[in-house]
Amino acid sequence: MNPAKMDMRHMNVTRLIIVAVGGQGNLLASRVLGEAALLADIPVRMSEIHGMAQRGGVVESAIVFGNARSTIISDGEADILLGFEPSETLRAMNKCNPNTVVITNLSPLPPFTVAIGKGQYPDLHLVQSIIRRKTKKLIAINAVELAKEAGNVLAVNMVLLGALIQTGILPVTIDNVKEAIKTRIKAAFVKINLKAFDLGFQSAQKN
């Protein structure tokens, strides 16, 4: 085996948690990251935990980069937390530690209980304050607005992926991810998704 590749396989392990509500496209984002890791010749393990099967249930993905033995990310072990929905980001804070970097979409998708008046959605300023207090850094962006700017509100996942890659924490390059987007997404939607990725990347730079 190439010595450079050997070194890569003994790289530090990086643990990423992605939380979202069903229908937000986080599983596609996870698969793009997995493809990008393969392109970079980096070991990657993934697992998904689904809530309710229908649209609206919570979906959590755990992605471990590097030569790890398990896909399980225990409480306090996440290096990065990527939240597609602010209240779900807050709910997943148990996975974080004081060195964790958190990226969250600021556009709420209130759960069913709030919609029918049985619950109360947390204040977004309070959500951000709690996260900042407990972690190393918070990157908070309105991914829905940026997705609309890119040309499709469904490109929220690519906006957040761009913000994630901008942190430089994951062992994959921009080129790896863009190539994976071209591989994993239908040709007709590639241009919009790449624009959404770039907008997310640029927005994270300003945070």
End-to-end separation: 41 Å
The level-1 CATH class = Alpha Beta
Assembly annotation: single chain
Total of helices: 9
| Helix/strand/pairing category | alpha/beta
Bulk shape: globular
Please indicate the count of domains: 1
CATH homologous superfamily caption: Pyruvate-ferredoxin oxidoreductase, PFOR, domain III
Q: What name is given to the CATH topology?
A: Pyruvate-ferredoxin Oxidoreductase, domain 3
SSE string: HEHEEEHEHHEHHHH
Main sheet strand line-up: 2-3-1-4-5-6
Number of DSSP E strands: 6
What Rg do the Cα atoms give?
A: 16 Å
Poorly predicted runs of 5 or more residues: 1-10
Give a quick set of tags describing it:
207 residues; alpha/beta; Pyruvate-ferredoxin Oxidoreductase, domain 3; 6-stranded mixed sheet; 6 strands; 44% helix; disordered N terminus
Structure in a nutshell:
This protein has nine helices and six strands; from the N terminus they run αβαβββαβααβαααα.
Tell me about this structure.
This protein has about 210 residues and is of the alpha/beta class. It has one domain: Pyruvate-ferredoxin Oxidoreductase, domain 3 (3-Layer(aba) Sandwich), CATH 3.40.920. It is about 45% helix and about 20% strand. The chain has nine helices and six strands, in the order αβαβββαβααβαααα. It has helices at about 5-10, 25-40, 85-90, 110-115, 125-135, 145-150, 155-165, 175-185, 185-205; strands at about 15-20, 45-50, 60-65, 80-85, 100-105, 135-140. It has a six-stranded mixed beta sheet with strand order 2-3-1-4-5-6, sandwiched between helices. Helix 2 packs across helix 8.
